[in-house]
């Protein structure tokens, strides 16, 4: 048994934030049905140009390797057609969760917004994941992760110095954490609340606010002491010698995070500089001299040599990995962060995907199957809803479904 077994999720998402949210729910056992636009007309042309999906084989390969589509079935619906909306209404009657990632108002204009769903199913949890939320001056603005972390204040803190422009991180903070993770947490909380009240509710998840939420400690420092981290100047973003990355002899990098005094003392002993043990908080020229010493010292041996030397001396140390190294690290492998998934459509019959970090002793998550191509389960779903093969074929010919 899995934790969310029996929970039915309708997934209207097109991009990473919402898709990651429903991926989490699917990994934990929910039955996730993607409601996608048919891969015809403008969408087919767009995918061909942007994603390189030109053939059914391309689409199948893409879905097979795409973890954001795993554990999900796919029903293709053109919601501009009244018959497609009726199909959705039938599905919504039995749905536990609906997740969408469009700009505010889009779902209402299509006739599938929360108020309509609430008329059909008062127990449904309806989650909207957007950049700025459903209300406020920015609600209808276009945006991406970079914009959201800009408004949240995070981007101004990332980089090596105030003289340089902010460094752009991968789209993990707003898209995946602020949107996907916060959305999944909200859905789980709403399901728990429904257990007590018998009612569903509407969830308004703004990625910008999710990022600000992760700044809880920083905001506390700002209001309590007037502190605001500057690029490359605070102890946790490059301003400290004891919490930094250092280039090694083989042109790789080692991370040192000796925040606690005892870790710093242990590092100084290991490097033969016990005289620096009480200099952790050094500033100005003294700090620069310590930084130079560490830079020159770590440049004398390879990254892996340094790690083997330091890892058992009670020092916070890590190897800065490439993606390939991270996936093949024995610790990650032993912990199941790389899993093999059955995939009969590809040579060898299996593909590797990222594992599930939520380790549950009694109801563990599982990758049950690889991703589905658009419309792969349209016929099966419609037959379950009572439509005839004749009706289904008519829908496909008129591009109501695919």
Strand content: 5-15%
Q: Kindly give the count of domains.
A: 2
What is the count of DSSP helices, taking H or I runs of 4+ residues?
17
Q: CATH-wise, what's the superfamily of the largest domain? A: Crotonobetainyl-coa:carnitine coa-transferase, domain 1
Low-confidence stretches: none
Specify the overall morphology.
elongated
Secondary-structure element pattern, one letter each: EHEHHEHEHHEHHEHHEEHHHEHHEEHH
Determine the structural class based on helices, strands and strand pairing: alpha/beta
The termini sit apart by: 33 Å
What's the rounded overall pLDDT mean?
95
From the 3D structure, determine the CATH topology of the largest domain.
Answer: Rossmann fold
Helix proportion range: 40-55%
The major sheet is characterized as: 6 strands, parallel
**What CATH architecture label of the largest domain applies?**
3-Layer(aba) Sandwich
Got a strand count?
11
For the record, the CATH class of the largest domain is Alpha Beta
Radius of gyration: 25 Å
Strand order of the largest sheet: 3-2-1-4-5-6
């Amino acid at each position: 048994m899995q934790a969310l077994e029996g929970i039915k999720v309708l997934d209207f998402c097109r991009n990473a934030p919402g898709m990651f949210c429903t991926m989490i729910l699917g990994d934990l056992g929910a039955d996730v049905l993607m409601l996608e636009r048919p891969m015809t007309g403008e969408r087919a042309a767009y995918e061909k140009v942007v994603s390189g999906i030109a053939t059914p084989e391309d689409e199948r390969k893409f879905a097979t390797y795409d973890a954001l589509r795993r554990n999900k079935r796919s029903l293709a619906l053109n919601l501009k057609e009244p018959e497609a909306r009726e199909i959705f209404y039938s599905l919504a009657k039995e749905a536990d969760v609906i997740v969408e990632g469009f700009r505010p108002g889009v779902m209402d204009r299509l006739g599938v917004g929360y108020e309509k769903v609430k008329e059909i199913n008062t127990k449904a949890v309806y989650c909207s994941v957007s950049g700025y939320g459903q209300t406020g001056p920015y609600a209808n603005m276009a945006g991406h992760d970079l914009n959201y972390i800009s408004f949240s204040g995070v981007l101004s803190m990332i980089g090596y110095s105030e003289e340089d422009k902010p460094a752009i991180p991968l789209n993990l903070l707003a898209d995946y954490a602020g949107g996907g993770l916060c959305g999944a947490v909200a859905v789980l909380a709403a399901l728990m609340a429904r257990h007590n009240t018998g009612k569903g509710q509407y969830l308004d998840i703004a990625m910008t606010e999710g990022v600000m939420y992760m700044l809880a400690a920083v905001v506390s420092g700002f209001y309590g002491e007037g502190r605001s981290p500057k690029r490359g100047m605070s102890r946790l973003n490059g301003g400290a010698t004891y919490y930094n990355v250092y280039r090694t002899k083989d042109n790789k990098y080692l991370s040192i995070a000796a925040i606690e005094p005892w870790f710093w003392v242990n590092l100084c002993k290991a490097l033969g500089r016990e005289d620096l043990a009480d200099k952790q908080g050094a500033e100005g020229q003294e700090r620069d001299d310590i930084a130079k010493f560490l830079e020159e010292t770590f440049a004398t041996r390879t990254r892996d040599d340094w790690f083997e030397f330091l890892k058992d001396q009670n020092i916070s140390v890590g190897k800065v990995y490439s993606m390939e190294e991270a996936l093949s690290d024995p610790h990650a492998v032993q912990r199941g962060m790389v899993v093999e998934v059955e995939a009969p459509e590809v040579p060898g019959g299996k593909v590797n995907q990222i594992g599930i970090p939520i380790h549950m002793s009694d109801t563990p998550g599982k990758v049950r199957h690889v991703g589905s191509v658009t419309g792969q389960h349209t016929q099966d779903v419609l037959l379950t809803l009572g439509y005839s093969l004749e009706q289904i074929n008519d829908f496909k010919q008129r591009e109501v479904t695919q």
